[in-house]
Amino acid sequence: MRLSSRLPPAFDPNALTAALTRLRSEGREILDLTLSNPTCCGFAYPEAEIRAALSQPAVLAYDPDPCGSAPAREAIAAHHGHGLGAEDLLLTASTSEGYGLLFKLLGDPGDEVLVPSPSYPLFDWLARLEGLVARTVPSYFHERWHLDLGALEAALSPRTRAVVVVNPNNPTGHFLSKPEWAGLTALCARQGLALLVDEVFGDYALEPPADCLASALLDPDPPCPVFLLSGLSKVAALPQLKLGWIALRGPGAAEHRSALAFLADQYLSVSAPVQAAASTLLALAPGVREQVRARLHRNLAALDTRLAAEPRLSRLPVEGGWSVLLRRPALDADEACALRLLESGSTLVHPGSFFDLPGDGHLVLSLLTPEGSFREGLGRILPII
Ligand SMILES: Cc1ncc(COP(=O)(O)O)c(C=O)c1O
Fold first, then answer.
1. Based on the structure, what is the number of domains in the chain?
2. In this structure, are residues 112 and 91 in contact, taking their beta carbons and an 8 Å threshold?
3. Which of 34, 94, 221, 372 has its Cα between 20 and 30 A from that of 185?
4. What secondary structure does DSSP assign to 248-301, as a single string?
5. Mean pLDDT of 202-211
6. Which ranges constitute the DSSP H helices of 220-252?
7. In angstroms, what CA-CA distances link 360 with 28, 174, 193, 283, 354?
8. How much distance in Å is there from the Cα of 59 to the middle of ligand 1?
């Protein structure tokens, strides 16, 4: 039987994942400097309060609203502020599901979305699985990352339906600047495009420049339709609870929300327990976010101390997010370097190529890694990069 052509031709792991599986099966202890799952990073969650929130009587009630329960939306609107109301939101089971709904909303099979790169690698598949094509448009680095608005405009085709930006970006940490926001929204308005803004890392500004756009919601009246995506996975460091959301702004927002509600109604995928617990989970979140932020700063400081003694290596500024880009002399391909660090240094890092970084010379490290492991991993890899 033939399967859908939207799927990959094979499900083979890439060379790095295959090597990791083999080394672990041989009993090798690997230090993982790519950890992005906060539940495995040693943070102290308010466990009793989380459990209590998930076992209130309301978790047993089923009264589905395709937009998500009003109390949960009110709590999310209050978390964001900037004039957002419960009526501007639609809940999803995750940010990834939010992309699926938005791609169904915006495009017909064969239509395109533009994604400034480097960026989160899942977009390619999320788009393909909805029959769309994600076209990457390189951003450039000059003292900081910049969107290439001219290149975005040049990449438009009659089939382009939307632009997807991540603010701050994963893995570059780049926050859109206010001029970039003005240029991007004007471009989308001129060309009749939607703008999807993924702000899952919005609460994690580390070294933000003065002109950065802390949130797309600071613009109360954008000239194009804006769909902001976020969720508990980063806002509360609770990816396992599966709650994301889409906030709508700009022309047509009310009609777009009705259409999204129709799409969401076909699945009703957001669980009643997480919706009942949402306001408590958001109220508890600042304590965990503080721990995450402290970890990110301490790991970055530890990296800077080590890099001061390694003139061959440097790092790019980390405006926000959970990752840092390490720059190295590109004597071999980034993927070959990552394989070498795994085999010889028993340490896992991601090559820049996994995120479409241009050329070679970048490795991506997660600043979420527990501090002892991060320092030990640096000690293992920096001398052999
Ligand atoms: C930029 C970005 N967007 C979305 C997601 C997925 O978030 P969720 O767990 O809510 O699907 C991730 C996960 O790391 C991410 O990095």
1. 2
2. no
3. 94
4. EESTTHHHHHHHHHHHHHTT--S-HHHHHHHHHHHHHHHHHHHHHHHHHHHHHH
5. 97
6. 232-235
7. 28, 19, 33, 43, 11
8. 25
Mean of all residue pLDDT scores within the chain: 97
Ligand 1 mutation pick, 95, 364, 368, max ligand atoms within 8 A of CB:
95
Ligand 1 centre distance from Cα of residue 329 (Å): 30
pLDDT at position 131: 97
354 and 325 belong to one structural domain:
yes
Q: What is the pLDDT of residue 69?
A: 98
Q: Record the tokens describing residue 287, joined without a space.
A: 């304590």
Locate 88 and state its tokens: 């501007």
Other Cβ atoms within 10 Å of 251 Cβ, number: 14
Secondary structure letter of residue 205 according to DSSP = B
Task: For residue 282, give both structure tokens.
Answer: 């958001």
Residue with tokens 């890439």: 14
Local confidence band at 84 (pLDDT 50, 70, 90 cut-offs)? very high
- Name the closest-CA residue to atom 7, ligand 1: 95
Residue 277 lies in a domain: yes
- Report, as an integer, the average pLDDT of 189-201: 98
Q: How far is the CA of 97 from the centre of ligand 1 (A)?
A: 10
Q: Is residue 265 part of a domain?
A: yes
Q: Kindly state the average pLDDT of the residues 66-71.
A: 98
Of 215, 258, 233, give the one whose Cα is nearest residue 88: 258
Asked whether 235 lines ligand 1 (CB < 6 A), one says no
For the entire predicted model, the pTM comes to 0.97
Indicate the pLDDT class of residue 357, thresholds 50, 70 and 90.
very high
Residues 279 and 291 in one domain: no
pLDDT confidence of residue 152: 98
Give the CATH number of the domain where residue 253 resides.
3.40.640.10
Domain containing 354 equals: 15-44+285-384
Looking at residue 277, what is its pLDDT?
98
CATH at residue 358: 3.90.1150.10
Each residue of 106-122: pLDDT tens digit? 999 999 999 999 999 99
Q: What is the C-alpha to C-alpha distance for residues 347 and 292, in angstroms, rounded to an integer? A: 22
Say whether both 278 and 305 belong to one domain. Answer: no
Same domain, 290 and 277: no
